[in-house]
UniProtKB/TrEMBL annotation:
One of its GO terms (molecular function) is S-(hydroxymethyl)glutathione dehydrogenase [NAD(P)+] activity. This is S-(Hydroxymethyl)glutathione dehydrogenase. Keywords: Oxidoreductase. The keyword Hydrolase does not apply. SUPFAM superfamilies: GroES-like. Its EC number is 1.1.1.284. The keyword Plastid does not apply. Gene3D superfamilies: Medium-chain alcohol dehydrogenases, catalytic domain. It comes from Photobacterium iliopiscarium. It comes from the Bacteria.
Length: 42
């Protein structure tokens, strides 16, 4: 079975007291017993 991924944007702090950087990451699709939550804001 091959794992499937989607692209997502994430706010990441690479260390303590470092500013957040918004980066595109790969996220595995949900497996059995998991859910995918999409948050939309304006």
């Amino acid at each position: 079975m091959t794992d499937k991924f989607i692209k997502s944007k994430a706010a990441i702090a690479w260390g303590p007291k470092q500013p957040l950087s918004v980066e595109e990451i790969d996220v595995m699709l949900p497996r059995a017993g998991e859910v995918l939550v999409r948050i939309v804001a304006t």
